[in-house]
TrEMBL record:
GO terms for molecular function: exonuclease activity; nucleic acid binding. It is found in: Nucleus. GO terms for cellular component: nucleus. The keyword Ribosomal protein does not apply. This is RNA exonuclease 1 homolog. The lineage of its organism: Eukaryota, Metazoa, Chordata, Craniata, Vertebrata. Keywords: Exonuclease, Hydrolase, Nuclease, Nucleus. Pfam families: EloA-BP1, RNase_T. Residues 358-517 form the Exonuclease domain. Belongs to the REXO1/REXO3 family.
Length: 520
């Protein structure tokens, strides 16, 4: 299993090794789970994994992650949900080279399954395995390594009230284990606050430290605001990239420039945005016929093959035009650009005396309803990477598909939610002014879901463009892997809006620090 030491490593080799390692670990975790005959795991197609346990996150977990709009930020934990450096993503297309696996002589310990536990067992098992691998590097026996890893994992679990916090704490523990074996061995006497990192870790963990020596100071306040402002989109860019813009005459109405011309004028005929099929709806928006939607949920990817390139779906490596690898109950539409009313616009407010208009990162999750894509969760992160607003949102129309694979939001999450889009808009209008900088990845998508018109936008998909130019855009997880050397969106339960929003903020803080280095 182990990685050959003492070899000059470039980041890409390190990454691919880490990925290979994680894949091995993950597979091992799966094997362990399967051996134990747990229900809930189905391995459907290559590389496709689901865990129904994870989907049934209990409500206690869900509510602990969500702030009500009236309780903003005061007691929010600084949850850093950057998931595990070095865990394979479900969409990573890196090829795995054959390598000889390290065969442990002892059977690895297994996390006992607790149904409805605050952290899914497979996540715990995955981290236990990673901890074991780290401990094996410096422990004198497997027995000792297993014991230490079990203790570490238990501390992480006991400390965590939710999966997000668990991931955060686990990553910090892992860093600690990797950093200094000697410290870890002698750590019995050290407080676990030290392990968890506390304030120091929260401020330094996103500081990229290439040389391993210097500690950068993160720009704050008005300095940060003014530096980010240079990346704000112009009105022309906002229009070019299809952001919602204010209607010149009607307040509450948005206009979109550069919309592709609509070919289909029949209001009762829709094109499914997943599989491309045409389907009929009735007057109240429901599908006329029960037709399954067979589609590929992954993206098309170009892969290098001997003699050229081939384009395959990232979900199942299926060819273009191959039958879908996922079947959902019915077809769905985006629909967000079809009703451009109900929009609100941020108000201009005088800048505070220090000149800091505020810098925030924002991300939304959506589900499919009869109307199309509707908001189900929104997260706002401030420039200290703290969650200042995070809530589930009840969609206005009947849900057709929870879209959990992408949103991470489940039916359970929305069951007891009473917050509506209108409530969210009210909170955001008081939180932001027209001068506030909102950072996001393809933020236009979020602004349509929020029905929010805002002009001071920093879009990480534009700041970090694809080398082929538009319409290609780089995925947020690839940006994070390339620039911050971190793997995000590794969660089998779907994306996490707080993770994505934080990633955008971190990327932009990284960017202005890089700018400063160049100037020096
Ligand atoms: Zn597929
Ligand atoms: Zn469809």
């Amino acid at each position: 299993l182990w990685i050959i030491p003492n070899q000059p490593q470039t980041w890409s080799t390190t990454l691919s090794r880490t990925i290979q390692l994680s894949r091995l670990l993950k597979n091992r975790g799966l094997c362990v789970q399967r051996e134990r005959g747990e229900r809930g795991f189905t391995l459907k197609n290559k590389g496709k994994m689901r865990n129904t346990f994870q989907r049934r996150r209990n409500l206690a977990d869900a509510s602990s992650r969500v702030l009500s709009p009236t309780r903003v930020a005061t007691d929010q934990l600084s949850v850093k949900a950057h998931t595990s450096t070095g865990i394979l993503s479900k969409t990573t297309s890196t090829t795995v080279q054959k390598r000889v696996a390290h065969t442990p002589t002892m059977k690895r310990p297994v996390i006992p399954a607790e149904f409805g536990a605050k952290v899914p067992t497979n996540v715990r098992q995955r981290y236990l395995n990673i901890f074991i691998d780290e401990c094996l590097k410096f422990c004198s026996s497997e027995q000792q390594a297993f014991q230490m890893a079990l203790e570490e994992e238990k501390v992480v679990y006991d400390r965590s009230s939710s999966k997000n916090i668990y991931l955060n704490v686990a990553v910090n523990t892992l860093k600690k284990l990797r950093k200094s074996p000697a410290v870890s061995v002698n750590r019995k006497s050290q407080s676990h606050e030290g392990v968890l990192g506390g304030r120091l870790a929260a401020t330094t963990s996103y500081t990229i430290n290439r040389s391993g020596k210097q500690q950068d100071v993160d720009p704050k306040g008005a300095i940060l605001y003014n530096k980010q402002k240079k990346y704000a989109m112009t009105e022309e860019q906002l229009q070019e990239h299809g952001y919602p813009r204010p209607h010149p005459e009607m307040s509450g109405q948005a206009v979109v420039h550069n919309l592709p011309e609509k070919k289909n004028n029949d209001p009762f005929s829709k094109i499914c945005c997943r599989c491309g099929a045409e389907y009929k709806i009735n007057a109240n928006g429901s599908c006329v016929r029960k037709e399954e939607c067979s589609h590929h949920w992954g993206r098309l990817r170009r892969n290098r093959v001997p003699g050229g390139w081939e384009t395959l779906y990232s979900c199942c490596s299926g060819a273009v035009g191959s039958p879908g690898c996922e079947v959902c109950k019915q077809h769905v539409q985006d629909g967000r650009k079809e009703s451009l009313d109900g929009f609100v616009k941020t108000f201009s407010k005088p800048l505070p005396v220090d000149g800091n208009g505020g810098v925030y990162a924002l991300d939304c999750e959506m589900c499919y309803t009869k109307q199309g894509l509707e908001l189900t969760r929104v997260t706002v992160i401030n420039s200290d990477l703290k969650v200042i607003y995070d809530t589930f949102v009840k969609p206005g129309s009947k849900v057709v598909d929870y879209n959990t694979r992408f949103s991470g939001v489940t039916q359970d999450d929305l069951e007891n939610t009473t917050i509506t889009l209108r409530d969210v808009q009210a909170v955001l209008l008081s939180m932001f002014s027209a001068e506030s900088i909102l950072i996001g990845h393809s933020l236009e998508s979020d602004l349509f879901a929020l029905k929010l018109i805002h002009s001071m936008v920093v879009d990480t998909a534009i700041v970090f463009p694809h080398r082929l130019g538009l319409p290609y855009k780089r995925a947020l997880r690839n940006l994070m892997a390339d620039y911050l050397k971190r793997i995000i969106q590794d969660n089998v339960g779907g994306h996490d809006s707080s993770e994505d929003a934080r990633a955008c903020m971190e990327l932009m803080i990284w960017k202005i620090k890089e700018d400063a280095k160049v100037k020096r």
